[in-house]
Amino acid sequence: MDATSGMGALKVSGRWHPQGRFPCLYTSTTPETALQEMLAANRYNRLQDHRSLPSTLVDIRAELFHLLDLTNGKLRQRLRLSNIAIQNCDWRNTNRFDRAEAITQALGRAAFDLGYEGIIAPSTTSNPNGRNVVIFPGKLLRSESIKLLTPIPNT
């Protein structure tokens, strides 16, 4: 499977997509944010840090034109969505116990359905400047918009 296809997202839910709905690729704007996100997800699931390693980080280059930027306070205000609501959204429990779609997943689905190439979102880790970019490969305006810069080791 191509590391940039986003097909893995069809198997499990994520903060910005409901399971099985559409491919998406979760990325971060810095390696530090990517590592913090990975560790935070594993810690949520009570996986000890040493069990998270080794891990493989890959570098991609993405040329995207039509993104929903949820780091923009004015846009969030128009959507009536606070940064705190994004940060505190426990999408896993909403899916598991309420058997419902979390607000972040509903936003991701809406962005996908409206033709956005992806979402820029604040990281939910302790890094206040961390940014994630969730890419919808099926909505890319140009098929060559994503390029894998790091070879994936064979496992």
Give a structural overview.
This is RES family NAD+ phosphorylase. With 155 residues, the chain is α+β, with helices and mostly antiparallel strands. The chain has one domain (7-49, 57-148). Helices cover 28% and strands 15% of the residues. It has five helices and six strands; from the N terminus they run βαββααααβββ. The chain has helices at 31-44, 73-79, 83-88, 91-96, 103-113, and strands at 25-28, 60-62, 67-69, 118-122, 131-135, 146-148. The radius of gyration is 15 Å and the shape is globular.
What is the element layout, followed by pairings?
Elements: E1 25-28, H1 31-44, E2 60-62, E3 67-69, H2 73-79, H3 83-88, H4 91-96, H5 103-113, E4 118-122, E5 131-135, E6 146-148
Parallel strand pairs: 3-4
Antiparallel strand pairs: 1-5, 2-6, 4-5
| Count of the separate structural domains | 1
What's the rounded overall pLDDT mean? 90
Q: Note the overall shape.
A: globular
By secondary-structure content and strand pairing, the structural class works out as alpha+beta
- Let me know the largest β-sheet: 4 strands, mixed
Protein name: RES family NAD+ phosphorylase
InterPro entries: RES_dom
Domain RES: 3-144
Summarize, please:
This protein is of the alpha+beta class and 155 residues long. It has helices at 31-44, 73-79, 83-88, 91-96, 103-113, and strands at residues 25-28, 60-62, 67-69, 118-122, 131-135, 146-148.
